[in-house]
Design goal:
2 copies of one chain form a homodimer.
Chain A: H1 22-37, E1 41-42, H2 43-49, H3 54-66, E2 70-73, E3 78-81, H4 83-96, H5 99-113, E4 116-123, E5 126-133, E6 148-149, H6 155-162, H7 166-174, H8 189-202, E7 205-208, E8 215-223, E9 229-238, H9 244-248, H10 251-267
Antiparallel strand pairs in A: 1-3, 2-3, 4-5, 4-9, 5-6, 7-8, 8-9
Helix pairs in contact in A: 1-3, 5-10, 6-8
The structure holds a DNA duplex.
Chain lengths: 279, 279
Amino acid sequence: MRPGAGEDEMNAEDPAPQRADGTVGKALEVLDMVADFERPVRFSELLAAERFPKATLFRLLQTLTSQGMLSYDPDRQSYAPGMRLVRLAHSAWRQSSLAPIARPHVDRLAAQVGETVHLAQLDNGQVLYVDKRNARQPVEMFSQAGKIGPAHCTGVGKAMLAFLEPGPLEDALARQSFHRFTDHTLTSAKALKADLARIRARGYAFDDEEHEPGIICLAAPILTRAGRVLGALSVTSTTERMNIPALEALAPGILQTAAAIAADAESWRFPEQDKRGGR
Amino acid sequence: MRPGAGEDEMNAEDPAPQRADGTVGKALEVLDMVADFERPVRFSELLAAERFPKATLFRLLQTLTSQGMLSYDPDRQSYAPGMRLVRLAHSAWRQSSLAPIARPHVDRLAAQVGETVHLAQLDNGQVLYVDKRNARQPVEMFSQAGKIGPAHCTGVGKAMLAFLEPGPLEDALARQSFHRFTDHTLTSAKALKADLARIRARGYAFDDEEHEPGIICLAAPILTRAGRVLGALSVTSTTERMNIPALEALAPGILQTAAAIAADAESWRFPEQDKRGGR
DNA sequence: AAACCGAGTTTCATTTATTGGAACCAACCA
DNA sequence: TGGTTGGTTCCAATAAATGAAACTCGGTTT
């Protein structure tokens, strides 16, 4: 089994979502659980929320804490994601995300259109924002990079879904909540697929107030020459300032930027540096 | 053994640095190793760099990859930190770091002094930058937040070390490389301790070109009322634009900001929200 | 004050996953 | 063709994870 390969021919009917490779998988599941709470969480809350037996959960938490992946506040007796994650994520962001490569292009586009620009990637069927240029105020750091969002009702999400292979697409669709955020939200796989077909034909996606009322956006996928989805790029505005046709006028610039990012990403090779960071 | 507690009375002579709780520890060690390379890394490179036997390392990598903690590029046959880390770090940054609480204060200070401002915390004896305000251009995202640096030769590092308890201090000192970056770098624990005493007396630290030539900074610790080190705050400039006395003139503002952050951090309690993110 | 409680922690025999030496496979040289 | 490197798989030995139950410790209740 090659790690990266996207197994097409897995049994289509595995009962449990077949997570958890051994102990490490469980530990990471706990880690996710703590992170999902978005606030310090107590042992008993985790215990209630999870299938692990007391003692097991306890040891898992201990291990993660002693490893710095979680931090424990003895006063409040609560766990929170630890700073080691931030350190690790720094590396991840720098070398696995599109952000460093795309930065100059995103900067240019943002300056050009004067609206908010998002750069996103697909992570487990969810949209993961990896960079953002806010028209005015300085970038909100992590509060945006690292944030996840739904794919079924965002421009970047749909732009990426539209160009997925059938296998990964089904997988991603299965992970959508299809939660209705607004009147315009597409709330079924069928409706979404119809839109995806249009997006594929058109080359870019709209979000016409599907996620938040008053917020519209145009998004283009970032694709390798071979057609693999790398990410997506979007320009967001409000119905007050703009409308869909006005956004569409920006499409050429956005598509061009997306293409430029794709080209850079593909030609990118890591310099064969041999120096190690000064630890 | 309470997870968070800083065991004072552990046998002072454990031979190996006693890492690795079980499998999870090993997996995380591999993760760190991959991250430390700061570039995609091949199986054999990791194998050479590490004590794990081939098969073990292989399985560890498989597990981490299938969990999304690493990404694997089949073409180049190389591993890199995965996007799941970015997602997790987002949570960590938001709730475990000082950054969200400190933001308004950091903003204000940055506007006031017109120089680069850093917010840092101590992570395993290293300085971990959690936020940054760049005098001019928009914030460099992760490229700064999540970055680690040496503690022995940076303003924020020394400001934090100076107010550590003897136990944690010794631990942190033992982790310093004491690498000489410039002529001014303090390269021994003895010299550093002398400086820490001055810092403790003075209330703030200088970095007088100890890390980079031409770069000077003034840093203040962020302390709880009880005296526990939460982090540090610094204003950085260049010898071209400023000098040490000029920086010292900014000290009151920096100290005041640090105090304000500490006060906010201490009064901060997480709102007892019960809603969960819309997964 | 004694009994009770519930959250958190530890123990220990049982079960299970991890381990790693060795064999294997597939390219790529020479 | 035969050697070599780089990566993957096997499987019996082993070490680690497991989880039911017992325990501890503050704070309640009766």
